[in-house]
Amino acid sequence: MVGDVRVVRDVGTAFAELVAGELRAIKPGRTFHLGCSGGASGIECFRRLAAEPGIPWGAVECYFADERCVEPESPDANAVAIAAALGAVRDDLAGFHPMSCTAGPDAYATLLPAGGLDLLQLGIGPDGHTASLFPGADGRGAPPGTLVISNADPSGRNRHPRMSLTFEAIALSRLVVVAVTGADKVGALGRIAAGEDLPATHVRGGRVVWLVEETAATALTSKVAR
User: Fold this and answer.
1) What is the pTM assigned to this prediction?
2) Is residue 217 part of a domain?
3) What is the pLDDT of residue 215?
């Protein structure tokens, strides 16, 4: 578990404050490439972020870490959930780029900004997955240069076929923020902190910040690498 680990009372608030500061610092004429993931933590993070004042949303383009292969309007789609969380600011964005399982991973890879995302939000699952990179199917066998893959959870616990950024694409991000909420993440977080070979253990980026809710932080020990 490599990065800046911060134990916080409320992950949504901490995320909104951190990311709002990054967005308010956007220089005139520049576009900020922001990566989103779904799940309860991602939805709450972006709902809180949308309420922050003074963000130049017209300079922000949103991309996705992963997507479920469902109908585009399905409530199970990450793009639908994040659009709802953003609310009115969704219409102010410079761009909103959902993944399309129909178009496929190569098509989405061509949409990604050259040089990587400025900031990418991720979460983790109770099994230690992140994005849609699952134990036993984490994409590390993909050829070098592969940025997006089609994927599925071999255990069947996570429904629907998926598309996902690869670890290579994640590592290109200037800042990766991993939001960890809920007591059900204690086991996985402890294993990640101990360096066990779970997908989320391999998250890298220019800078990585782990925002860990107090209810999940009981798993952390002095073994965490900072």
Assistant:
1) 0.95
2) no
3) 87
Task: Residue count of the chain, please give it.
Answer: 226
Phi, psi of 213 (to 5 degrees): -65, 145
78 in helix, strand or coil?
A: helix
Residue-wise pLDDT for 119-175, tens only, equals 999 999 999 999 999 999 999 999 999 999 999 999 999 989 999 999 999 999 999
pLDDT at 223 over 70: no
CA distance 45 to 15: 6
How many domains, the chain?
A: 1
Which among 124, 120, 119 has a CA at the least distance from the CA of 212?
Answer: 124
What local confidence, expressed as pLDDT, does residue 2 receive?
86
Report d(CA 89, CA 58) in Å as an integer.
Answer: 9
Q: Left, alpha or beta for 29 (phi > 0: left; psi -120 to 50: alpha)?
A: left
75 is a domain residue: yes
Please report which helix (H) or strand (E) contains residue 5, including its range: strand 4-8
CATH of the domain at 151: 3.40.50.1360
Q: Which pLDDT tens digit goes with each residue over 175-185? A: 999 999 999 99
Phi, psi angles (nearest 5°) of residue 178:
-100, 115
- CB 7: neighbour CB atoms within 10 A? 15
Distances (CA, A) of 66 to 131, 187, 208: 5, 23, 18
Question: Is residue 51 within 8 Å of residue 72, measured between CB atoms?
Answer: no
Domain residues for 55?
22-177+187-195
Side chain identity, residue 157 = R
